[in-house]
Amino acid sequence: MKRTLISAMLTLPIIASGQTLRLYSPSGNNTVTFSKDGKDLTYSVNRNDTPVILPSRAGLNVDNRVWEMALGKRDLKQTDSWMDLLEVDSITYHTPVDTVWHPLYGERSTVSDRYNSATLHMSRHDKSKYRLDVQVRAYDEGIAFRYFFPEHPDAIFHKVNDDLTSYSFPVGTKAWSEQWAQATFDVGPVDSITRPVERALTLQLPDNRSWVALLDADVDDWCLTKYVADPNSQSTLRSVMYSPVDIVTYYATPWKIIMIADSPGELIENNDIVLNLNPPCEINDTDFIKPGKIMRTPRIDTQLGIQTIDFCAEHNIPYMLYDWQWYMPCTSHDGDATKIVDKLDLHRVIEYGKQKGVGVWLYVNQHALQKQMDELFPLLKQWGVVGVKSGFVQYASHRWTTWLHDMVRKAAANGLMMNIHDEFRPSGFSRTYPNLLTQEGICGNEEWPDATHNVTLPFTRMINGAADYTICYFDKRLKNTHAHQLAASLVFYSPLQTIFWYDDPSRYHREKEISWFENLATTFDDSKVISGYPGESIVMARRKGDVWFAAAMTNNEASTQTIPLTFLTPGKRYKAYIYTDDMSVKTATHVGCQERTVVSTDNLSFDLLPKGGVAIRFELM
Questions:
Q1: Is-cis flag, bond preceding 279, omega within 30?
Q2: 247: number of Cβ within 10 Å
Q3: HSE on the CB side for 215, CA within 13 Å?
Q4: Which residue from 21, 160, 454, 594 has the fewest beta carbons nearer than 10 Å?
Q5: Which residues contact 76 (CB under 8 A, 6 or more apart)?
Q6: pTM of the model
Q7: Collapsing DSSP states into helix, strand and coil, what is residue 608?
Q8: Interatomic CA distance for residues 350 and 339, integer angstroms
């Protein structure tokens, strides 16, 4: 899995002597430096000659003593850190890369991949024959690096037990952090992060100089890594591995990403860097992969399933989900997902869905997946199921990370799409296996977050990639306005966009604004952040073909949001369909629907209610 990207970096190298690797991004705005001074390997990052990452430690700790003893290398010196005895041998500067590629689907239909790269080669000059490379890329969007173990000639296994990588920021740097993937956010200085926190971690440097996001990519054969404040170094984060990782060389670790931007919106617009650091699609026939909207039927019931399919067909929703309890017991290894509960005629519902053009997804808990996956996936495909939503999957240790990603591979081999729920967060694997349409890893609508949380998410969690927020609409437990919910379905990108969570067809009373959901795309040709700040507001625009969609959301307080329409094609007239909160509308949702003609030189301004929003669709006239 980790061997496919190596050869691409070995084209026309320039070998340099010396101890320091210095690399500039294509435009020269970002600079990264690696050097080994005595025992420590350190690096630093500048943006326009201003420090973003101050000199910080890099490297890994490897505990190989038992394997060394077993393989007859019993006289090797044992040091405090595996990195101590490594020396820089050479530095290779690679040919610059400047290409574009076209994903099967995404937030953009064309992705630019443009960077300069270099490799720092190190080895121990003793009988151990240990070597370690640091592969570095400098993008205009940020810096990425990973560690690579060349093949060991004596086949000594490597047990990586610590990630030594740290991140030292200028004093006064502020972070938006969360301790687990479905948590809410804390905002404060770097030193306040006393418990490990998730990636993406978004930070603002002092004096509004730059915005930074720490992420990872290509993490299908590693473990979860988080960040925590280093008590021995001010404004410094250190890496925390969930578990040791056992590797066989040659082997590349995941990429570490330091995104850098001049505004928080640029972090969202530049998140293709995560996809660029993953291998290309490995599925030969992708015809079965079809993004779209999905609605859950809230009860395991045949007739309600048929009614939900009718609702989906009427409102341009191509998928319906049966959630847990269609097999029992679903949270036990004693459950059997090959046997449908007696009260549900699942085969009848699936066949009815085919007649109506609505595919059926099924929830499967990890217990059944762990026990039955190899038998179950071919059976579900035989039944006519189009996708699987996996629930309560473990994901953090090395063992469960590889198991989870292999689950996606096995689903692809059986022509099944996937949605991974609970704590898992993406790192770009959907580029390689696009049958993984989406995943949770977000404090979504199931937990009824407020509007301030919702306008933090775009600048934090959504940098990782798609998120299944599970949009609620008619449920009385909503904390935010209904126009806020409409806007969220555009702002929170998900190729499989769940709408009407907790709802059933009986709650619909011909509300006019449902036309927004009917016409909403879930994948796009272009995406732009118009304005916003985490915890305050967000204004976004996305294009599908000739149709533009725009949305604005505010936090728990009222605000005025202006949307300049410069993203529209100059000289063209558009019909704008506007959905806003309007308490004078005599429906339970209080959403007003308006139409007006607009051009690219227009500005639309909206006084948003507390916890409110606005959603707009622009169609060429």
A1: no
A2: 19
A3: 35
A4: 594
A5: 68, 126, 127, 128
A6: 0.96
A7: strand
A8: 15
